[in-house]
TrEMBL record:
Organism: Peteryoungia desertarenae
GO molecular function per UniProt: lactoylglutathione lyase activity
Enzyme class, first EC level, given as a word: lyase
SUPFAM superfamilies: Glyoxalase/Bleomycin resistance protein/Dihydroxybiphenyl dioxygenase (SSF54593)
Catalytic activity line of the entry: (R)-S-lactoylglutathione = methylglyoxal + glutathione
The protein's Enzyme Commission number: 4.4.1.5
Protein name (record): lactoylglutathione lyase
Family annotation (InterPro entries): Glyas_Bleomycin-R_OHBP_Dase, Glyas_Fos-R_dOase_dom, Glyoxalase_1, Glyoxalase_1_CS, VOC_core
Pathway annotation from the record: Secondary metabolite metabolism; methylglyoxal degradation; (R)-lactate from methylglyoxal: step 1/2
Superkingdom of the organism of origin: Bacteria
PANTHER family in the record: LACTOYLGLUTATHIONE LYASE (PTHR46036)
Keywords: Lyase, Metal-binding
Residue ranges occupied by any VOC domain in the UniProt entry: 11-134
One Pfam family named in its UniProt record: Glyoxalase
Amino acid sequence: MPSKPEASVFHFAHVMIRVSDLDRSIAFYQNVLGMTVRRRADYPEGRYTLVFLSYGPGQAEIELTHNWGNHTYTSGSAFGHLAIAVDSVERATQLFQSRGANVLRPAGPRMEAPDEIIAFIEDPDQYRIELVQIAAEAR
């Protein structure tokens, strides 16, 4: 097994998802999930736009990739979901639902681990987002 790299050398940077309506997706991640746009770049030669959002400096980002023109995407069977750590899954689910998120699975215990509370919502492109309750000592 390879040795663990120094923490200062590596960190998780971002996850990329393709979106069909960039403005709608930005609105969801900003207005529903409370993220901030960190940077945006248009690439006319490649006919696409990249928008990076996160919860703050040094946090992992989500990269929204919008290919210009009409594109239809299907989720592959290998992709599962994105996950956001929250202090209360129930409160976060209620907040995100009040902001327009579609709740796929309300807050409740995981069947396999009843002490773990989770919920699932989805973004405008039907990407599933898991809300994971983190213990106070882990924050």
